[in-house]
Write a structure and sequence with these properties.
The chain is an alpha/beta fold. It contains 17 helices and 17 strands. The strands form 4 sheets. It has an 8-stranded parallel beta barrel, surrounded by 6 helices. Strand 16, helix 16 and strand 17 form a beta-alpha-beta unit.
Length: 443
């Protein structure tokens, strides 16, 4: 059971030195109990206390990393069942499945979906390599997959083939996903020998539980639970039961991330795979394996993932300041919008598409959209003018033309009063009209 704030306080040095960033040791203990501070922030905690606190405050789901050192991926660390309770920690990772014969095509297809959304790169992170019986071909395919820079899952239950493939790509830190009740000892030995995470599956959840415990007894800690592919119903039930057991019941034997192989649950049906992927983003798939990933699939799935794996208690914002776009100089026109990340990336994207140099000014608007920030008084003529003056923007730009969002055209007159010498220009109400507007304005 997790320690309460008072229990943590009793283990602190009680010096109230403030070096942890909190005013008192009691406040620090409360912050640690809430999960908003780390015990390592106290520089005077004894080794004994750190060990005790580390065990007591560890998340119910084990966290670890997979993949090559320069592109590690995080798994686990979850603390809640529902995102609105706090936040989900490690985003669902997408894998595309291939066999030895289709590895080249799968890698090329993965490259075609790679874009940025609200400051986050959207791409398939993993290649799942299925074993089809040819050990030599499988090892060569593993080398190609690892060379792509993607994390590799070796889905193989043959011990000899698994060992050959691991020997070839061990430095890329793949996942060995092939353990089952019949080969636990052999695959545990392989995972320990090569220092990789191990995936385990079984025909039913009770046998799966026993298999996980068997791996734990072998000293393995980086375990991924494959929820199985007998049916959509059983895979979903297993995913939910495993997460509930870990979070609600504190059962550490099920406190591990999961693999959901949608490619096997709905083979050949891209629409069903997309629907199932959205389901398991919400209901506890740590790694979701699909047959492929097109843009038509990626846009909704990556968008859903990004929305789900953000902290609901914190607005998505960009840093305030002035952003020169399209090579803008001090003579380029200025524009202003809010610091809500989605608004910023939509507006900046349209400005970049226009090719017109613009200095985009971002004041603190509380992380709200334009209308919400305006109605809350956080995006007003006074706040915009104050930001421009306090940030000394007038010394950084010579152009005194300022575009404001069309939805707050009402601010024009007051802004002209607050910013003498500036010409306030009302831009279109929708960002999609900015390209034409800016080109005509430049002309």
């Amino acid at each position: 059971m997790a320690l309460k704030g008072i229990d943590i306080f009793k283990l602190t040095p009680k010096t109230n030195c403030k070096e942890c960033g909190q005013p008192t040791c009691m406040a620090f203990g409360m912050k640690v109990a809430q999960g908003t501070a780390q015990i390592e922030q106290c520089p005077h905690m004894s080794e004994e206390a750190l060990a005790k606190l580390g065990e007591a405050t560890a998340p119910p789901m084990k966290s670890f990393k997979i993949g090559p050192a320069d592109a590690e991926l995080s798994l686990g660390g979850e603390t809640v069942l529902f995102r609105h309770d706090k936040t989900f920690v490690s985003k669902t990772l997408f894998a595309v499945s291939a066999d030895a014969a289709g590895t080249d095509a799968a890698i090329e297809a993965i490259k075609s979906v790679d874009y940025e959304r609200i400051g986050e790169r959207m791409s398939v992170e993993i290649v799942n390599l299925e074993y089809t019986g040819d050990s030599a071909a499988y090892t060569e395919a593993a080398k190609k997959a690892a060379a792509s820079g993607k994390t590799v899952i070796l889905s193989v239950s043959d011990e000899a083939a698994a060992k050959d493939a691991l020997s070839a790509i061990k430095d890329s830190k793949p996942v060995l996903n092939g353990a089952n009740p019949s080969n636990i000892a052999a695959f545990a030995a392989l995972a320990k020998e090569f220092g990789v995470a191990i995936g385990v599956t079984a025909d039913d959840i009770d046998t799966l539980y026993d298999a996980v415990q068997a791996l734990e007894k072998e000293g393995l800690k980086d375990i991924i639970i494959d929820v199985g592919a007998a049916s959509v119903k059983s895979a979903f039930a297993n995913a939910v039961q495993i997460r509930r057991a870990a979070i609600k019941s504190g059962d550490h034997s099920f406190g591990y991330p999961s693999i959901v192989n949608i490619a096997k649950l709905a083979p050949g049906d891209a629409s069903m795979q997309t629907a199932l992927a959205s389901l398991f983003i919400l209901k506890y798939g740590s790694i979701v394996i699909m047959e492929g990933m097109s843009y038509a699939q990626a846009l909704p799935l990556f968008g859903l993932r990004q929305n789900i794996f953000t902290d609901p208690q914190k607005p998505m914002t960009v840093e305030t300041g002035i952003y020169p776009l399209n090579g803008a100089t001090e003579d380029s026109i200025c524009a202003v919008t809010v610091d809500f990340a989605l608004t910023y990336f939509i507006v900046s994207g349209e400005i970049e598409r226009s090719g017109v140099p613009v200095n985009l000014i971002i004041p603190d608007a509380g992380g709200y959209s334009v209308l919400t920030a305006w109605s809350a008084g956080k995006f007003s003529a006074g706040s915009i003018a104050a930001f421009i003056k306090e940030s000394d923007i007038e010394s950084k730009v010579k152009n005194r033309n300022l575009l404001i969002p069309g939805k707050v055209a009402v601010l024009k007159g007051e802004l002209e009063e607050n910013l003498p010498g500036w010409k306030i220009i009302v831009s279109p109400g929708e960002a999609t009209s900015l390209v034409k507007f800016l080109k005509e304005l430049q002309a």
